[in-house]
Amino acid sequence: MLRACLRGANATARNNCRRNPLTSVQHCRHYTAGETSGATKVVAAGLLTVSSGIGGTILYAKWDHKFRAAVEKNVPYSDLLFSLALGPSSQEGLPIKKQTELAQPPSMMDKQVKASKAKSEKKVKEAAESPAKESSPATTQPAQSIEEASVEATHIISAIGEVPSVPAPCDTESAAVKEECKECHDHKDTPVTAVVHPNTESPVAMEPLKERPVEEVAARLAQQDQEEQDILASVSASLEESLASSAKTTLQAIGAQEAALQAITQHTHKLKEAMEAEVPPQEKSAQWKDLEAALANRTCAMNDASTALLKANETLGSLKSVIDKSKGLNIAAVHPLVLAAEENLHNMIVDLDKVVTKVQSAESEAKIVSQYSELVNEAKQQFQREVSSLTPEIQANWKGLTGKLSADDLNALIAHAHRRIDQLNRELAEQRVREQIHIDAALEQQKLEDQKALEKAVNTTLQHVKEEARLEQERKLGELREVMEAEMRTQLRRQAAAHTDHVQDVLKVQEHELRAEAEQVLSSKMLEQETRYRQLNQEQLDNFTLDMNTAYARLKGMEEAIDSHVVAEEEARKAHQLWLSVEALNYTLKTTDSDLPTIPLKSAAEAVRDSCHDNDFALALASALPEESLHRGVYSEASLRARFNSLRSLARRVALIDESHNSLYQYFLSYLQAALLFEDEQKAPPTQLSREDLDPFKLLSYASYCLEHGDLELAAKLVNQLRGETRRVVEDWLTEARLTLETRFKTPCARCSKAAPERNRASSMFHKDSCLQPWKPREDGQRREVDRTTARDLGLVSHLVTHSATALFTVGNSCWR
Amino acid sequence: MSEKQLGKKVDRCLADGAIKLGTGLGLGIVFSVLFFKRHTWPISFGSGAGLGMAYANCQNDLRSHYLLHKSEKVGL
Question: In Å, what is the CA distance from A731 to each residue of A159, A664, A666?
């Protein structure tokens, strides 16, 4: 009915549904037909908006790459759309930017380095020259100390040259720091390296700085230093040498010139004396000899002086050349020496010139005097000749001839004298007349000569002054440099202090870090060692304990074996006892008293329980005996048999009655059937029951047969197959039969369980089979074999027992349905 | 003992039948005498009723095991 309702409902629903879509479509159609324009308008507007939005996005993305990237990142599949519309996004811009960024710091670095280089060069020059200014006395020691100072300064400068690089990009920071550290450790840096490195390296790659090893740098610096030192030494040596030699020669020349001067003056004096002094003739000859000696001396001295002068000039020239050469070397430390040498040279030249001028003036004087003396001599000679021409006989020494001369001679002489006087007067007049002209000419000549001399003197003084001015300038320059150098040094010292502080801090930090690291490493190693040591110890201990344990275990095993033997004996005794009690139980089960159909098994069960107080299985079995059997007892087989025989007729009589057929008429019919139907008293049951065999009469005959042959179990199974009223009638009998079977089933297994403890598995297996076999009259042979089972097979046997019991009961229960 | 149940029931039936038959007969006789002018039909009616009742009772008693009673709860 429900289904019919459902079908009807479905049909109606289907009908309704068929009708409804049509109506709804119609409605829709009406709806759309009525307002189509509105919907299409909305749809069109929406589409337009969306497409315009997408188009605008694409265009803007084409223009602005960042926007495109943002959209691609945020909207999942927009990158596909963009790639379709615009092509792949241009990613080249980014690497270029990166490159420019990368290029920038190196260029900046380069600029900084170049600036530092220029600064350092200038500073170096000043540093070099200011020490030169300081060491104008030209001693080597101050020069060296200043050199060292300059070295330090330049070291600091080089450090500064690297410092601006530290805050620059990170990839060079480590390099710069490393460089700094290198230079901190290495005190032989000079600005040359700072200068050389940026010069020799390419502007972009600061990496070669990193790669240059400290040793190479130091070696290079040392080498350069060494070279400088060598050059300096050589230059200073040469300068000194030439200076010394030139000084010597100059002094010599000066000495010679002085000597010449002396000689000249002496000679001149002597000559003057000789000319003017009126001395007796003997001394005159001596005088003239002296004069000649003086003249010789003078010539000698002049020669000496001239040679000396030449030599001096030579040496001075060489010194100048050396100075020029050393100037040409253009090394900083050489300058002071050069300057000093130049000054010395200048001084020497000045002195030499002075002396030479003195000598020259003396010479000119001497020349005048000699000219005068020559004139005088000439006049004397002339007079002598005149006198001799006049008076050939008269000797030259006419002064002493006052007595010897004749009157004629005297007259001639006087006439000659008069004539000479006239002549001289005439000459004098002439001279007086030409005096002015001569004087003018002389003046002119003098003027010229004076001018020349003046010019020469002016030139020389100018040169000297120029030289002096230059030297002064250089000196001043040196001083200025010195001052600047000092200032620079203070600044640098400050910076060096700051740098050292920074370096100290860094070093401290590094020290901490390294220490921590080292400590960690140390602790880990220590831990490792300790754990290893402990491990080894533990292993040793373990081995020892293992050995001890094995020995102990063996001992224990032996003890246990002995104990188990004892225990086994005990068990055997107990088992025997148990067996005896079970036998008693069995006997009780078998036999029945005359007056009571059943005997309570309680006492026997008690006996069993007492004897198996420590055997759990037997205990369990003893407790598992049903209460009924204990209190009331079980029916023996014989009684059951008798009862069944009495039951049988009743069962036959109610064979037709069951749930459906149970009226009185049916009862009458079944009675009739029982009266009229004849079956075998006993019939052997087949191995498999078929449907025909389930007839009550047949079943009853099978059961009788089984009972007669002592197979209570099978009889119970067959009786279990009865149905209906018959079943009700035989129910009690079946229950009793089950009880008996249960009790009887347990006892053989209990017996099995308590046999002597022999470790014979085969016997136990055999015994298992004997337990499971259908109940057959026991034989004594079996009993003995049964005794040989072990205590240890309790578990297996108990499992079997419970399994069989449950099987039996489940069979009964299922058949009851 | 389940085998004795049937006997007991049959005993009860017979007793009950006897009683009812007798009672019916008696009542029939009484009624026949008193109200129905000694017709035979009340007697037969009474005895028949009595017998019928006894039959019904006996049948019910014998069936009682197979029937569900009102007090019993049956699980579906």
Answer: 120, 22, 21
